[in-house]
Target: tRNA pseudouridine synthase
Amino acid sequence: MASAARRSRASRRHALVACLAPMLVRGAAPGSTRYALRVAYDGTRFKGWQVQPGGARTVQGELNAALRTRFGGADIPTLGASRTDAGVHARGQCAHADLPVAPLGGAPLELLEHQINRLLPDDARVHDLRPAPAPKPWQAREGLPWHAIANAAGKRYAYRLTARRGSADPLGRLYRGHVAYRDVDFGRLDDALSCFVGEHDFAAFANNAPGLDPSGAARSTTRAIRSATLLDEGGGDATLTFELDGALYKMVRNVVGAAVAVADGALPRDAIPALLAPGARRADNPAKAAPACGLCLEEVYYDDY
Model:
């Protein structure tokens, strides 16, 4: 069973690579070396991670612009392990980029990190820049390099919420979602979270249609949540932590929203297993997504980085 789940996750990662970034899957361009880097950002003023048409301010856009300036106008696209949406924060986003070797000039990577960060706005920072690890055997056989998405082994998200009856703390309003203005039973919330642990079809917790991959096959909406825990911080505040293999668009926020709805009595607990059953869709789920400001991508896990 476990090996089948691992094969399923590997298959999804491989398909995702082909779907999202064909231009970055093959080896680095001549004269370039693939690097891995971690990115932290305050998502408040970003329209998400991924570059968007129309010039919206995104983390990837700012990072690409900083690299372009540092490397003399060269176009150096980046690719992130997670496409966080507008208003979502990150401490441990991971990305890769193919950097020209010559302009490094033997300078230590710490200096290059410093130079990139000088070119980034104050609400985004790069750290742990290093040459990308060696590709896995399956990648090497196909001539593929290490890849921020394909090599990810899991992710950890934290959702910080408040359920205070009055106004939210003004000092935490940008980083903690105000999910309810009435009492929320955190015991029931914890119990609701347990329903999501395991491998399920999360189509009813995704805000976009799955669509098709380039081969014409339907994209899978099956994901595995390895753990979901609640830390009661007192005063109506709590932090929910999720360890998972990957997430669909707005999946974590929709899971939080449904769990809160169960905890405050707006949604019966028995509704959760039904929403996780094959065939359920987002329209069947009456719970609203929790606010973006409470969500933070804490870490992307790798076996070798």
